[in-house]
Amino acid sequence: MATRSRARSVDRIDTDTERTPLLAGTPTPTTSTSTRSHSPEYSTTQSTSQTITNNDDDGDDCDDDAAAAASSHLRALLRPRVVILSLLLIFLIELGIGMNIPPSNAIMESIICKQMHPEVLLPPPSKPIPIDLPEPNIPHLPSTTTTTTPATITAPISTSIKNRSPITAATDPASPRGKIRHFAGGVVLVDDPVCKAPDVQGYLAMLRGWQNTFDCLPGIVGAVPYGILSDRWGRRPVLGLGLVGISASVAFTYFVFYFSDVLPLWTTWFASAFQLIGGGGPIVVAMVYTAVADVVPPIERATIFFQMAAVFLGSQMVAGPLGGAMLIWDPWIPLLVALLVLVIANLTVLFYPETVHLHDRKKPQEQHDGVRDDIPRGVKLVRKARENLADMRDFVLSNGNLVFLMLSLVFVVLGRYVGEILLQYSTDRYGWSWSTASMVLTVRNAGSLVTLLVLLPVASWFCTRRLGMESMTKDLWLARWSGIFQIVGSLTIAAAANGAVYSVGLTWFALGSGVSATTRSLLNSLVEEHHVGTLNSLIGFMETVGMTVSGPLLAKSLRIGLDLGGPWVGLPFLTAGVFFGVSTAIMWIFRLPGAQALPVEPSC
Question: At what angle do helices 422-429 and 40-116 cross, to 10 degrees?
C-alpha cells in the first residue's frame, strides 16, 4: 500500500511538472534506472519496489490509453457538430456586421455633410412658376410716342416664361427620389458631390478609425479574464457573452443614428463599452478557433481553417451587396435585418457543444489535490490569472522563434484593415455611390472565396502529394506566397487610376486571402494540443493590438491622401503594402524547428 501511494505520488508530480519542449524550451529529463547499490538487501528491496512500481505504471499507462481512446472517440463524435455550427456562426456574425456597413457609412457621411455644409439642405433658388399668361393688350399710342419700350419689356418676360422648365421629382429636394431623402428618426441621406469633399471624408475616416480602436480595447482588457473563464466555464459561455456584447454595441449605434439631431456623432464610440461583455470580436474569434482546434486533428486543421475563412468571405460577398441594395429603399431596413441576424447568432450558441473537457489531462482526484475548498472564489481567480500570465510569459521567453512568427500576424492585421476602408475609398476616388461600391467589392470577395475553396486546397494537395512536403512546411510556403500576392494587390490598388485597374488590384489582393489561415494552422501545429488554447489566446491578443494601431494609422493616411489629392488618395494602400512587406519578410526569415524540437507523441 505504501509503495502504491508513493508510486501514485511520483506519477502526480511528473504530470504536474510536465512541459512540452516548445513551451518550456527543453524536454523534461527522464529518471535514470541504472543506479546500483552495494548492499544485496537494498538491491533486492529496490528491485521488488521497482517491479511493483513498474506494474503500477503499466496499469496507469493502460488507464491513460483507455482515456485517450475515449477522448479520441468523443472528438470524432463532436467534430461534425462543432465544425458545422462554427461555420454557421461565422456566416451569421459576418452577415450581420457586413450588412450594417453600407447604411452606417451613408448615414454617418450625411450627418457629417449636414454639419459641415448646411447649405446642402437649403432648397434651390426660387424660380418663376411656368404659368401661361395671355399677351398684354397694349393700346396704340400716338405717333409722337416711341413704341420700342413695350417690345423691350414684353420680350424678356415672355421668353423667361416660355423657356422655363417645370420642377420635377428628380430636382425637387422634397421628393423621395431626389438628392435629399428623409427617413425615420431624423435620418437624412444627402447625395451631393459636396459630401465627397476631403473635409467630410477625412472626418468620416477619423471617426471610423478610432471606432475600430475602441472596439479592440475590450479584447485587450478581457483577454486574460475571459481566457481564464473559458478554461473554468467552457468555450460556449464566453462565446455567448461575446455575441451579446456585440449585439448590444450595434444596437447602441442605431440609437445614436435615430437621435442624431440631439446626440453628436462621436458618441458612437461609447458603443465599444458594451463589448466589455464577452470581450468583443477578438474573444469570439478566439473561442471559435479554439473549439475547432479542440476537435480537429492537426493534419486536417488547415483545410478547416480555409473553410472558415471562405465562409467569412462568402458572407461578406453576400452582406455588402445586400445591405447596399436595401439602402436604396430605406437605410433602416438593412440595419434592422442585421440586428435580427445577430440575435439569431446568439440563439445558435445554445446548440454549440462544449469542448473544454477534451484536453483535460489530469484525473478528477488530482484536480483537487492541494486545493482548499474554503478558499474564496475571487482568490482562486486571481491565482489562476497569475498562473496564466506566468504561462504566457514562459511561452514568450522560451519560444522566441515561435513568437517571431506570430509577429507576422500583427503586420498582416495592420495591412488587412485597409479592407475596411475600401468602401469609402471607392466612393471617393471613383465617384461611385455606396450601393455601387458595395457591388464592385464583390470582385474581391468572390476572388477570395475561389482562392480559399479551390486554389489553396489544390495547392495544398499538390505540395503534400506531388512534392512530398510535410504539413508544416506546406503551410509555411503557402503563407509566404500569399503574402507576396497581398503586396502586389495593395500596390496595384494604390496606383489604379480607373475602375478596371482597381478591379485587377482587388483580384491580386484576393489571392493572398489565405495568409492568416495558413499561418494560424502552422502555429497550431507547432505546439501540443493542450497548449492550443494558450496559443490562440496569445494570437488573438497580438492581433487585437495590431487592429488597435491600424485603425487610426490608416485613417490618418487616408485623410492625408485626400488632402493631397490626385494619386495620393491611394496612400493607405501604399502603407498597407509596407505592412504586408514586413509580414512576408518575417515568414521568409522564419525557419521550422528541428525534429528534436517538434512535439512527438509517445510510443505505445
Answer: 30
